[in-house]
Amino acid sequence: MPATPTRYTATARLLHWIVALMVLATIPIGTVMIQEGLTRSTQDTLFILHKNGGVIILLLVLARIAWRAAHPPPPLPASVPAWQQAISRLVHVGLYAMLVFMAVTGYTRVAAGGFPIEMLDALGVPRLAPRSDSLAETAKALHHNGRLVLVALVLMHVGAALYHAILLRDGVFSRMWPPVGR
Ligand code: HEM
Ligand code: HEM
Questions:
Q1: Do the domain assignments include residue 4?
Q2: Residue 77 is part of a domain; what is its CATH number?
Q3: For the segment 33-75, what is each residue's pLDDT rounded down to a tens digit?
Q4: pTM, to two decimals
Q5: Could you list the residue range(s) of the whole structural domain that residue 87 is in?
Q6: What is the number of domains present in the chain?
Q7: Angle, to 10 degrees, between the axis of helix 133-162 and the axis of helix 10-33?
Q8: Residues lining ligand 2, CB < 6 A?
Q9: From the CA of 15, which ligand is nearest?
Q10: Is 102 within a domain?
Q11: Which end of the chain is least crowded, N or C, by CB within 10 Å?
């Protein structure tokens, strides 16, 4: 019998850290790119990074969800009380759901508004949303409000991860560390 694993698989850890870094960059880029007073070329660059980065995040998150379905996470240490295990499951499901939600509403806002999504356009991927100003406005409002839910979940998640890593040192952080190898 192999020993019970104490760590996420190398694939799960690599995907976690790539997506984490991309999301932690995409949120401020999205916030800055719509501010007044940017030069046209700065704004264009930030929009290109945000839209195309967001599409890549969506593909990576879908890959993570598929990988997770086939490779369930190892059990948490018994020292983590059941109620905290339940909250952590809820926050993880919420993070996955909000990443998909943000990417889909962002995509819909741009596709329905008739704007380019350079990477997909270059690959010849057809638009998956009809051209519609009202759909674009609805998606924009959902994307705008959804960011608050995502940011709240990220703050809870990072706070809990650092609490385990720095104060408790109970092995929870090293389940997701290092990003590469072992
Ligand atoms: C998980 C992925 C994504 C995250 C976390 C994210 C996050 C954000 C945030 C925080 C803002 C600022 C919103 C505001 O303050 O009103 C924003 C704006 C925006 N995002 Fe995203 N976004 C994501 C994916 C996408 C994608 C895939 C696209 C398009 C292909 C996109 C297109 C836009 C656009 C066009 C805006 C400006 C909205 C406006 O018209 O005011 N986003 N995003
Ligand atoms: C510096 C920032 C971050 C740290 C230190 C961190 C740390 C961790 C750790 C230690 C775990 C494993 C938890 C467990 O064993 O139950 C984990 C899981 C997870 N993290 Fe992060 N994380 C960070 C950022 C993010 C970001 C930005 C996102 C997405 C927005 C994210 C999404 C997730 C998800 C969805 C899981 C659950 C994995 C699964 O069971 O499928 N993390 N993270």
A1: no
A2: 1.20.950.20
A3: 999 999 999 999 999 999 999 999 999 999 999 999 999 999 9
A4: 0.96
A5: 10-175
A6: 1
A7: 130
A8: 16, 19-20, 23-24, 68, 73, 76, 88, 92, 95-96, 99, 154, 157-158, 161, 172-173, 175-176
A9: 2
A10: yes
A11: N
